[in-house]
Write a structure and sequence with these properties.
248 residues; two-stranded antiparallel sheet; Aminoglycoside 3'-phosphotransferase, Chain: A, domain 2; globular; alpha+beta
């Protein structure tokens, strides 16, 4: 019998692997609706949905391996990173999905959320004030007009699988929807700045690097407390706090 592997587990959801099947347990069925819909619409390889019995969604494992993880060493040739960039561009050029995604929050809402989080980080002594203030200033570049695209919304490096230079699957679509395309590019390269040029080469468009840097700062500021409260370590080498320090 296959062993059960706990892939991720926290108070909001859990993902288990049993052989070649992933079981995603999520009590928020609206979030699961988004994931299933996005996978059906995305013009890139996605996992096969095997069955759904709330609160469980069963999907098939995708072949290939990731290019690494946040806080760990990266793998893959520059051509593999470029292939990932090309797949992201294909997604962004697809017809817009019906819903707004995580990357599509309004400037007003995003500004308010960021300001509240920055205040909490300093007030609770999580991060030094100068680190928060500097990165809050860098994050300002995010607040500009942008053209909505079909975005993944949580395009971590661990969510994109490749076999050589071919993207074989992109997983975890619960934050997908209309949004800022540079959010996806920034999320994918977070903590792996050395591969940003390779990804952009595959993406095939001129990119405002100040906005990519801004999303790195904003995403890291917004995630530090949540990660710490849910059993993750944003202070580990190469993770969110190091990303913030790199902007100093």
């Amino acid at each position: 019998m296959d062993e059960i592997e706990v892939v991720v587990a926290h108070s909001e959801r859990a993902t288990l692997r049993v052989g070649e099947v992933f079981l995603k347990v999520d009590t928020d069925q609206a979030r699961v609706d988004v994931e299933v819909e996005a996978m059906s619409l995305a013009p890139v390889p996605t996992p096969e949905v095997l069955w759904r019995r709330p609160p469980v969604l069963a999907i098939a494992a995708v072949p290939g391996t990731t290019l690494g993880r946040l806080g760990g060493p990266s793998t893959g040739a520059p051509t593999a990173w470029a292939a990932a960039g090309a797949a992201i561009r294909k997604l962004h050029e697809a017809p817009l999905p019906p819903r707004q995604g995580r990357a599509g929050r309004s400037i007003a809402r995003l500004t308010a959320e960021l300001d509240d989080e920055c205040e909490a980080l300093v007030a609770h002594g999580v991060l030094p004030a100068d680190l928060v203030t500097r990165n809050r200033r860098v994050a300002e570049a995010v607040f500009r007009p942008w053209t909505p695209a079909f975005t993944h919304g949580d395009l971590q490096i661990a969510h994109v699988f490749l076999d050589g230079d071919e993207v074989t699957g992109i997983i975890d679509w619960s934050e997908a929807g209309q949004g800022d395309p540079l959010y996806d590019l920034a999320t994918f390269t977070l903590g792996h700045e050395e591969h940003l040029d390779d990804v952009i080469a595959g993406y095939g468009d001129r990119i405002d690097l100040d906005v990519i840097h801004a999303w790195w700062s904003l995403r890291s500021l917004m995630n530090v407390r949540w990660l710490a409260e849910h059993g993750f370590d944003p202070f580990a080498p190469g993770c969110e706090v190091d990303v913030l320090r790199a902007r100093m």
